[in-house]
Amino acid sequence: MASNKTSSNQTPPQAGAQPLCAVKEMPNRPLDTHVNEHRAGLIRVTEKKWVNGTVIRYCFLDQPATWQGADGQKEAVRAAFAQWKGLGIGLEFREVNEPREAMLRIGFEGGAGSWSYVGRDNVDYATDPRERTMNFGWDLTTPYGRDTALHEIGHALGFSHEHQNPNAGIVWDEQAVLDYFAGAPNFWNAEKTRHNILRKLKPWETDGSEWDRDSIMHYQFPQGLILQPSQYRSQPLLPANGFSARDIAEALRFYPPLQPTLPELRPWESQRIQIGSGEQIDFMITPDVSRQYTVQTFGNMDTVMVLFEQMDGEDIFYAGDDDSGTDFNARIQVRLFRGRRYLLRIRLYYAQQSGEGAMMMW
């Protein structure tokens, strides 16, 4: 769901009058022309998700002054991160003060709407440390505002709008939708409304899931905008507050709890990759010799491979490669140091045959 406000001391609008979150429209990463629809679908449903185990650093921007948030608004965002972590997911969230260290950079500009980049778009496209990757444009201390914070963080974790699920069966009164969102409090043009409301996601963007009308990623809608299901012609569609059961299941599917111990990857030992699409396999690396190493996958599969160094109890990004949608294999060439510990995390998008992939370090 999205959210409501212009200043923190205003009374929240009644249901159906809320301003809503607007996702930034980004280009699809190009895939090789010979990639078939099934393979492309498996890539698209996962490509914006983070590698599980990532420490996502966020900061609050204080410049310009219009982006500054009051302490209560910041606390609401911190609480929302804690709620996502409280689901038991394998991601970590850490607040930092330096924008150059942050993957998520948060502003609180009233009147600018609430929005976020989606998943890895935060680091792939929003590369200027002075640039916001998320904004909150209304009070986050109301029930609707608290759901706003959860919703925008959901986008930052790679989850899309649920009301655009192609399996929802929603039939819109398109002109009524365009007219409604052109007015207060959203003032959206037709292009923005089509992108955020009327556009149906591709089936693979929701992984074929059924419609979840109580998802935290679902908007509220007043009566009269939806023709089917017919009950919403005469009543508003109001998702329940907080996470739905399916929200929790999907979060844990992509970001399950981390394993307490990991297998070790040693030079010249081949490791078979036997995981399903969207799943992940992790290895520990503790080099005996400081030198240049190569880590590479083998086989007809699409993966993202990320190497972290463990420093002071924290996993720091060291190197990575994403070979999805190409004829190449993921490959990292990097100098590793004796006495240090590294984590290698590999998420599979697609494999031509089950269990066909392998990886090796040398």
From TrEMBL:
InterPro entries from the UniProt entry: MetalloPept_cat_dom_sf (IPR024079), Peptidase_M12A (IPR001506), Peptidase_Metallo (IPR006026)
Highest taxon above the source species: Bacteria
SUPFAM superfamilies xrefs: Metalloproteases ('zincins'), catalytic domain
Peptidase metallopeptidase domain sequence ranges: 46-204
Name under which the protein is recorded: M12 family metallopeptidase
Higher taxonomy: Bacteria, Pseudomonadati, Pseudomonadota, Gammaproteobacteria, Alteromonadales
